[in-house]
Known about the structure:
mainly alpha; about 0% strand; about 160 residues
Amino acid sequence: MMQFYWKALVIGFGGTLAMDVWALVLAFGFGMALPNWGLVGRWFTHLAQGRFFHDDIALAQPHPFETLVGWLAHYAIGIFYAALLIFLAGPGWLASPTFLPAFLIGMITVGAGWFILQPGMGAGWAASLHPNPMQVRFLNLVAHAVFAAGLYGTALVLARA
């Protein structure tokens, strides 16, 4: 069982790190804004107090350590999804990873952003209240495909180690 947790931790970290590297590529290569994990942390701290929906999370009361909370939540969720992937794909997947299960998990994770996080933070369902929702949706799909590639790539490295 410890092997399961260790591999979920490493694979989830690798997938999430891939997503963060992608965000850096977009920021430094194309001038796009980096994700604001502080606002995600603010949402999580308000969630712990029983408030799910906000009109605009940027206007909500700030909390100490919200940036740290956001980063920790970001990586913890990536690790959770890696554990789900390993559980659903089975131990054979760890020995011989394939891309499709990782890709399916990556695409499923988009739903959490579209139907939990974005409405909770005030962006509407699937960023419907954003000035350019189709662009946000496309970028979400690409970022989560990169997450999936990171899950798969990290699992491959572990399988060959």
